[in-house]
């Protein structure tokens, strides 16, 4: 009995060893697969953004700084209230650099005094010049009278003497007329010189007056009640104490209208073609994870921009948030789910089922056992997990999710799908208007 028992054990051991030593063929049954589904399909684009108000009251540099008489094109912010401060109408917001304006006024006052001195000098010069000309005019008049008297007394003189006396009178008359014309011309010239000097005085005086007006409004006040939010300078940095504000970008801060909020986001260039005005959006707020809001795309930028410190191009998109919420504040971080497409009753499958080479997309359709078909497909829209299958796959077809070992030996099925796509692309190119 014992001998029989040992024989059975020995046979089992030999059989097990034989199974281990015989090489096994890998079965294609180990491939993961899933079925194509028919149903409703939603394509989405995901992005993060930042809350901002749709409308706001800007707090800007005083209008007095825009005067043409003031040679000041930028000014520093000496002090500004903390961001988020609630202010009343007329309440203090910021102080601009007094020292810079004082320096400007000192220079303007010096220029005014210089122009006043020049004006006084012009008047004195005019009086001296005209006084000299008047003396010359008087002397010429006296000389003419003398010549006329000599002519009258030469009545009994020889013709030659009479002739000379007459010529002397004519010469004196011409000289007198010349001096009169010179006097009038010089008078006009000097009057214009004095006028120009006075105009310069007025310009310098206006400049001093405008600087004095600016000095009185260097404390910036709120135009209405509201929550103070800092604006951004031309470099994209928030305004703060020490920031420089220019006349061409005069915003210091703003008082946002919290009743109408936007989510400002940036979409990469790969997805921007999917985003259109009017699409619905689900907006989440990082600060309040339990809250979400419905929204709508209201604008899509036509021109992209490069992300700072990067090469990726993005396009600005604005999403208007429906309704109001007292907890929402500008600059809060948002998450945006943009519904770019919705199709009913279509066939779709996971992205993992789709394979491609340089020119076409295809799937592996299981046909029973280890058999499969290498099928060309026409793809439609996609989302983060699935893609629409326009042609080449039927509902409930079982699709492999990884590549079979002998896939390279398989011929493609559905070559007519590929040919149709090529023809459609060619027709599209032919129908494009030619560039002139």
Automatic annotation (TrEMBL):
UniProt entry tagged with the keyword Coiled coil: yes
InterPro entries on file: Beta-barrel_YknX (IPR058636), UPF0194_transport (IPR050465)
Pfam families, alphabetized: Beta-barrel_YknX (PF25990)
Location(s), subcellular: Cell envelope
Residues covered by the YknX-like beta-barrel domain: 264-333
Coiled coil (UniProt feature): 162-189
Major place of residence: other
Keywords tagged on the record: Coiled coil
Signal peptide per UniProt: none
An annotated GO cellular component: cell envelope
PANTHER family, per the entry: EFFLUX SYSTEM COMPONENT YKNX-RELATED
Protein name stated in the entry: Efflux RND transporter periplasmic adaptor subunit
Species, as recorded: Carboxylicivirga sediminis
């Amino acid at each position: 009995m014992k001998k029989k028992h040992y024989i059975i054990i020995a046979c089992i051991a030999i059989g097990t060893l034989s199974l281990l030593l015989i090489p096994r063929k890998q079965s294609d049954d180990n491939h993961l697969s899933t079925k194509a589904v028919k149903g409703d399909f939603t394509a989405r684009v995901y992005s993060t953004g930042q809350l901002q108000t749709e409308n706001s009251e800007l707090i800007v540099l005083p209008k007095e700084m825009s005067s043409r008489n003031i040679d000041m094109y930028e000014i520093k912010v000496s002090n500004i209230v903390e961001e988020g401060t609630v202010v009343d109408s007329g309440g203090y917001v910021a102080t601009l650099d007094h020292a810079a304006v004082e320096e400007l006024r000192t220079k303007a006052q010096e220029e005014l005094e210089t122009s006043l001195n020049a004006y006084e000098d012009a008047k004195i010069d005019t009086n001296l010049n005209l006084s000299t000309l008047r003396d010359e005019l008087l002397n010429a008049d006296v000389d003419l009278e003398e010549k006329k008297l000599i002519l009258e007394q030469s009545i009994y003189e020889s013709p030659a003497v009479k002739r000379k006396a007459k010529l002397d009178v004519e010469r004196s008359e011409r000289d007198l007329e010349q001096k009169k014309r010179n006097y009038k011309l010089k008078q006009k010239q000097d009057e214009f010189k004095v006028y120009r000097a006075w105009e310069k005085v007025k310009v310098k005086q206006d400049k001093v007056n405008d600087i004095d007006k600016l000095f009185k409004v260097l404390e910036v006040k709120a135009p209405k009640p509201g929550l103070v939010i800092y604006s951004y300078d031309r470099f994209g940095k928030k305004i703060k104490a020490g920031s420089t504000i220019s006349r061409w970008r005069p915003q210091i801060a703003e008082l946002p209208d919290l009743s109408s909020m936007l989510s400002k986001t940036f979409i990469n260039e790969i997805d921007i073609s999917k985003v259109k005005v009017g699409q619905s959006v689900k907006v989440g707020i990082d600060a309040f994870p339990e809250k979400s809001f419905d929204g709508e795309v209201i604008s899509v930028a036509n021109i992209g921009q490069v992300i700072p410190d990067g090469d990726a191009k993005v396009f600005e998109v604005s999403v208007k948030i429906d309704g109001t919420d007292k907890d929402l504040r500008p600059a809060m971080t948002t998450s945006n789910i943009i519904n770019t497409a919705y199709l009913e009753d279509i066939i779709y499958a996971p992205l993992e089922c789709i394979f491609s080479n340089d020119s076409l997309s295809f799937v592996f359709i299981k046909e029973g056992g280890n058999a499969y078909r290498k099928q060309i497909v026409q793809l439609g829209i996609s989302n983060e997990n699935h893609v629409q299958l326009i042609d080449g796959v039927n509902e409930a077809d079982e699709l492999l999710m990884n590549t079979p070992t002998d896939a390279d030996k398989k011929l493609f099925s559905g070559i007519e799908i590929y040919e149709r796509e090529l023809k459609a692309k060619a027709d599209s190119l032919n129908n494009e208007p030619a560039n002139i």
